[in-house]
Amino acid sequence: MIRIEHLVKSFGDKTNIIEAVNDVSLEVKKGEIYGIIGYSGAGKSTLVRLINQLEKQDQGKIYIDNEDISLLDKKQLRIRRQKIGMIFQHFNLLWSRTVEGNIELALEIAKNKQGRKERVKELIELVGLQGKEKAYPAELSGGQKQRVGIARALANQPDILLSDEATSALDPETTETILALLEEINKNLGITIVMITHQMEVVKRICHSIAVMSEGLIVESGSVKEIFSHPKNEVTKRFVQTLDGMDIEKIKEELISLYPHGKLLRLYFSSDISHKPIISQVMRETSLAISIVNSRILHSQSGPTGSLYVHLPEGENREYKIFCEKMSNEGVIVEVIS
Predict the structure, then answer these.
(1) What is the reported pTM?
(2) Are residues 58 and 123 in the same domain?
C-alpha cells in the first residue's frame, strides 16, 4: 500500500543542517494500522508530511499502490491527496463554520458537488455526532472536535488516513473513544491508517505494526508483538517501560537482589499462546519447585501478551534444561536473568 525507500529530508543551510528524516525505509500493508512513534524532534511529523507530499524529500521514493507520487505534477498530486485523509492534533477546524460546514469543506475543496449534503449526514452518523450538526467548534468538547476532524478526513472516501498526534491533546477516556472509532473505521471501511504518536499506549491499543524513530532514523520496526516482547534499541526500551510505569531493567535488578541464589528467568507469552496453561503443564512434568515472583500483562491489537518472572531453586541442571526446552517447545521465549 505505502512503500518508502531511503527517504531523506533536511532543513537549514550549509552552516546548520538538520536531518529531520535520514534514510528511512518502511512498508505499510493495505488495511493495516501502522504506528510511527518517537519523542519530540524524532522526525515523525516530517515523515507524515512527506507521505502526503506537503513536504518534498531531498532523496528517496514514496510509492502508494506502486505509484511513485513524487513524480506527479501539481494537478495529479491534488487529485491523489483527496484519497489521503489527514487528522490533526489540534483539530484545524474553522471556528466560523458549523459541524456540517467543516465536514463539507473537504468536499468543496475537492469540487465534489454530487450528493454533498447526504455525504455530510452519513459522516456525522458514522462519527456519532447526531444532534451536533449546527454546533460551532466553540460549543464542542475536545473529543467532539476530533470527531469532526475525522469525519472531514473521511469526506472524500480516502484509502489512507494519516493521524498526526490525533489523541495527544485529549484526556485518557476521550482518547479511548477516539481510538475505538478509528479501529471501527479500519475494520468496517478497510482504510489503511498511519498513526504518528509519542504515546506508547496508543500503539499498544490499536496498531498492528510499529516503527520507532529517533533523530530522523528508524531505529527499530516490526509487529507490535515483536517489539513489545523483545525491544532491542534503548529508545524502544524506554517507550515500552513507560507502560504501566514498569521499568523492565529495574524489575530485573530488584529480583536479582531478592533472589541471589538459584536461577531467575523471564518467560514471554505471545498472544497466540497466552491462553494456554503452559506453566502448570510443564510444572507437572518436572520436579522443580518453581515460584512466580513477578508478572505483567499487556493488551494490544494482536491480543494479550505477558511476561512472567520465575525463580528456580538451585538443583539438578538436567531438570532446569528440561524446563527451558519444554517452555521453548511450547512457543515461550525464555530469557535468563541470572
Answers:
(1) 0.79
(2) yes
